[in-house]
Design brief:
- It is a single chain.
- The chain is mostly helical.
- It folds into two domains: 5-128, Up-down Bundle (Four Helix Bundle (Hemerythrin (Met), subunit A)); 137-217.
- The chain has helices at residues 5-19, 37-56, 73-90, 107-128, 137-157, 193-200, 211-217; strands at 168-172, 177-181, 187-191.
- Helix 1 (5-19) runs antiparallel to helix 3 and helix 2 (37-56) packs antiparallel against helix 4 (107-128).
- The two termini are 25 Å apart.
Length: 223
């Protein structure tokens, strides 16, 4: 499926900012131990700055501006989200850029990556506030594919996780699709695309999984 990533990025950053209006910055983030909403906003705003720098400067060397205690969460975040959308909107998708993917060194990489980054952290914020909204199944499955083809291979390449042996076949029952991580006769994990995406990003209960698959996926298959 083809997506208008820039429109999705604008919509998803607006949604994240809206979730921050009038909230307590010290609300804990359930699936990011030790983090509060302040930390989550600081992280996502910093990632936006970093991604924009990767496009403009062609390297990952930026030290982001940090969110100060007591600052307006939504206002600070919007500043950096708008700057990222402006950079990506004014840069051709096929322009060269530093990226996380050896196979795709273009600015367009960051359009997709930042949509998925933002949607996952929007879920983090909304879940912490008791108002999580569901993922679009097709978009969630695209996030699963990003893990399988970009994130997991990079984690292996950087030595952050060992190759999965046996493999784990991820099967989306609501999207009628599957993808495999690792090698060897696979263990099968199936479910709704959203649940599978959150599983891969360590935001889902694994108690109902085959213990062997749960152990494999508990490693750093994503950053």
């Amino acid at each position: 499926m083809s997506y208008d990533w820039l429109t999705l990025l604008g919509d998803s950053t607006d949604r994240f900012a809206a979730a921050l209006e009038g909230v307590d910055p010290d609300v804990p983030i359930t699936w990011c131990p030790g983090w509060t909403l302040h930390d989550l906003v600081d992280h996502l705003g910093g990632v936006h700055q970093w991604a924009g720098h990767a496009v403009v400067a062609g390297d990952p060397s930026l030290e982001p501006v940090r969110l100060e205690r007591g600052a307006d969460l939504a206002g600070w975040y919007r500043t950096h989200a708008v700057a990222l959308v402006d950079v990506l909107g004014s840069t051709p998708a096929d322009a060269p850029a530093w990226t996380l993917d050896k196979q795709d060194q273009t600015a367009g990489f960051w359009r997709r990556r930042q949509v998925h980054e933002t949607l996952m952290h929007t879920w983090d914020a909304e879940e912490a506030l008791g108002t999580p909204r569901p993922f679009d199944p097709a978009l969630a499955w695209d996030g699963v594919l990003e893990v399988a083809t970009v994130m997991y291979p990079r984690q292996v390449r950087l030595g952050r996780v060992a190759p999965l042996i046996p493999a784990v076949r991820i099967r989306g029952v609501d999207v009628a699709a599957d993808v495999t991580l690792g090698t060897g006769d696979p263990l099968v994990v199936e479910g709704q695309a959203e649940d599978l995406l959150r599983l891969l990003w360590h935001r889902a209960d694994t108690s109902g999984l085959d213990p062997r698959a749960a152990a494999l996926l508990s490693g750093a298959v994503t950053p």
